[in-house]
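Tutorial handout. Part one gives the primary structure; part two gives the three-dimensional structure as tokens.
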Amino acid sequence: MNSAHLNHPHTNLDRSTKSVGTVSHAHLTTPSRPLPISMNDVAHLAQMWRPEARLHAVLGSWENFVFELIKGDERVILRMTEDHRRSKDEVGAELNLVNSLASNGLRVPRVLSFADGRQIVSFTHDGTTYWCCLFGKISGEQMSASSVLASEASIESWGELIGRLHISMSVSSTSGLPRPFWRDNPLLRTALRDHRNETVLSETVDSIVSELSSLSVARDDFGLVHGDLHGRNVLQSRKGDLAIIDFDDCSYHWYLYDVAVSLVWLFRSGGEYDRVRDSLLRGYKRQRPAYRYADRLIDQLAFLRNALDHALAMHHYRRDPISFSSLRGRAMKLEHYLQLQMSYVLN
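Part two.
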């Protein structure tokens, strides 16, 4: 698969800000956590990449801590992942996947090495070990939900993009990579616990997990997925080429989980649920076959995605209610989305 495949006639999406969704929602922004390390620590890591390199920007501090480093005209991305989230082998498997996708022509970040040749460097601070890795920076703008929602054709082209990604992932050297299976996500237990006082929500999450666990797993339906495919993780160049970034959440799951994640992103951004789901599926099916009960499975996976995001927000809020006071409001919005989705999964 070459990069031209990503520059599909419909994939060069319009960045206009037309409002198409008929459902009005309060949009969720990406939260952040206080940085647990000092800027001197980041500067030290920068110099492990290149002498005289320096910190240029803090790009994110939610599930990982992400920085942009600079030396002259060269810019790279430094990502720090806590060892309780990922093992070193899991991070290494992600890097192997990205390298394999790149060799198949997919536009993804280059995996870089530190000055001593290592691709993963450990850094310990205050009892926590961080796995540090480097990626080449890809130029481009993050895709906005409004540009994808601008027309049914643009939503369908997003579904095609997911389908082409899965084709590339299925032919890449991914067999046996040590990445988590969907059932291993500790947030599943948190999701059930968080909703124990909301009987219907708790029973719904439990029912979905049980039903998914009982489904037969076929090669065309199940494999490595991106796991977090939304507009912030897709960059569009000035020429219209698309690049997919941030494979940190890649895991073994139903392929349709990536479609469900995109559905949730567009639904939260004001998209009409049925219209977005049906358009994404039409586009996806142009590239590869979808599970025979795709509509029901996507509804279940979309519900589960919102439940997991709710669990993550509440996990951090409980650990530090003062620093993460805003996450309580985020959790309440997510509960609202779960209630709206309830009718789709209770049929």
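Part three, for discussion. The two ends are 39 Å apart (CA to CA). The chain has two domains: 39-136, 141-345.
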